[in-house]
Write a structure and sequence with these properties.
This protein has 128 residues and is α/β, with parallel strands linked by helices. The protein contains four helices and five strands; from the N terminus they run H-E-H-H-E-E-E-H-E. The longest helix is centred in the middle third of the chain and has 16 residues.
């Protein structure tokens, strides 16, 4: 006998049979986590510089030698591993604002111009 409210004894509305519960596969040990795979992919991508950042590097005479680039890249890798989105990365006397997911340097500031700057829209800062 049907319930006058339209709910039968099986928990279905209007007499329709209840759907079976949805199950999702569970990852068993041995496979890398999504975060580990993503971090590995990000670490292999080179850094890019926006047009604005390239202008600032040139105007301010910021040296981007291999050591500086290695430290900057390492800082971006660490920021990516922590889930940062827009980071201020300090390398020696220079500051770089980086879009971490895009691996793109947005702007670059040397020590002489740093005291005039206010860094906005960043969620993290680190020393590389």
């Amino acid at each position: 006998m049907a319930d006058p409210n339209g709910i039968d004894g099986l928990g279905a509305v209007g007499g329709a049979p209840a759907s079976p519960p949805v199950t999702r596969p569970v990852q068993q040990g041995g496979g890398a986590s999504f975060g580990a795979v993503l971090a590995g992919k990000l670490e292999t991508a080179p850094l890019k510089f926006s047009g604005h950042a390239l202008q600032r590097v040139e105007q301010r005479g910021i040296n981007l030698d291999p050591t500086t680039m290695s430290r900057l890249t390492g800082g971006v890798d660490r920021a990516a591993a922590k889930g940062c989105r827009n980071s201020l990365v300090l390398v020696d006397q220079n500051a770089f604002v980086v879009s971490v997911p895009n691996r793109t340097v947005i702007t670059a500031v040397d020590r002489d111009h740093m005291k005039e700057q206010v860094f906005t829209n960043i969620d993290s800062a680190l020393i590389a």
